[in-house]
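Hi R.,

As promised on Friday, here is the backbone we talked about, encoded as structure tokens. Could you run it through your design pipeline when you get a chance and send me back a sequence?
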């Protein structure tokens, strides 16, 4: 009897728990969208407000999310090129299918791994620091001080960080893809693969379409915006204590990862449908 009662309880509680989780996910998505739209509105409406104060902050965050991460991005590009592209070219050469090397490289690196590696680097290196910075400022009452001085916290704290992460993700994606393609060919050259540079470039050019450039650029921009909105929201939008900052960081990182995967899947569906 106890076992049967337990099974009935589990059957009843599982749908309820699933529905509750789904409601929480939808509610969180709505809050993130609202926060993102508010931030975009503030950025567009206050472009020329406090320009001498905003320019140094904007340069700092662009440097932190872009230039500062460039060595690490190049290292990841070399790893992708050696492991993924180089191995693919070597395997294709063994079966006499070198003509498909460009297609595989474009499909794997340009469309997928390049943007994903860049945004994950920004999320883990800059996004987590953003949550900690904004959460600490919230816990110390600095946000309330800005509001008491009639200064918009979103304009002074969120807008520079969002611009930095969006531009950083976009530029890192470009450099990472280019470096990965070069490192991949270098690895294939060291393996004595019969693939001359002219043929390699011709295969890449033949595999790329105008839609690829548009989708990669749009994907990088949306990835950066997703990371910026998620991390800034969890650090600033709700009152936090010092003990809550670590939990907010973990929550923002997990939601950022889930959002990146979902957005990448959406882009894949759009690309296949086109």
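Update: got your reply. Pasting your designed sequence below so it's all in one thread:
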């Amino acid at each position: 009897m106890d076992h049967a009662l337990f099974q009935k309880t589990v059957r009843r509680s599982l749908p309820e728990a699933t529905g509750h989780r789904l409601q929480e996910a939808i509610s969180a998505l709505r809050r993130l969208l609202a926060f993102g739209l508010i931030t975009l509105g503030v950025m567009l409406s206050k472009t020329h407000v406090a320009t001498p104060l905003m320019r140094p902050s904007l340069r700092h965050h662009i440097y932190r999310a872009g230039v500062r991460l460039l060595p690490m991005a190049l290292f990841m590009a070399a790893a992708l090129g050696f492991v993924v592209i180089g191995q693919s070219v070597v395997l294709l050469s063994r079966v006499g299918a070198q003509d498909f090397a460009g297609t595989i490289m474009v499909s794997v690196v340009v469309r997928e791994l390049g943007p994903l590696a860049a945004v994950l680097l920004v999320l883990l290196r800059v996004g987590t620091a953003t949550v900690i910075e904004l959460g600490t400022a919230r816990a110390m009452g600095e946000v309330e001080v800005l509001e008491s001085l009639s200064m918009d916290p979103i304009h002074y704290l969120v807008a520079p960080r969002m611009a930095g992460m969006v531009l950083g993700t976009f530029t890192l994606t470009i450099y990472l893809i280019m470096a990965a393609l070069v490192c991949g060919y270098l690895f294939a050259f060291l393996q004595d693969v019969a693939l001359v540079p002219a043929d390699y470039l011709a295969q890449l050019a033949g595999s790329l379409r105008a839609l690829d450039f548009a989708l990669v650029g749009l994907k990088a921009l949306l990835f950066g915006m997703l990371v910026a909105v998620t991390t800034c929201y969890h650090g600033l939008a709700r009152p936090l204590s010092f003990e809550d900052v670590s939990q907010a960081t973990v929550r923002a990182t997990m939601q950022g990862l889930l959002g990146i995967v979902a957005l990448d899947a959406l882009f894949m569906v759009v690309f296949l449908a086109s």
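One thing I noticed while checking it: The chain has one domain: 54-273.

Thanks again,
M.
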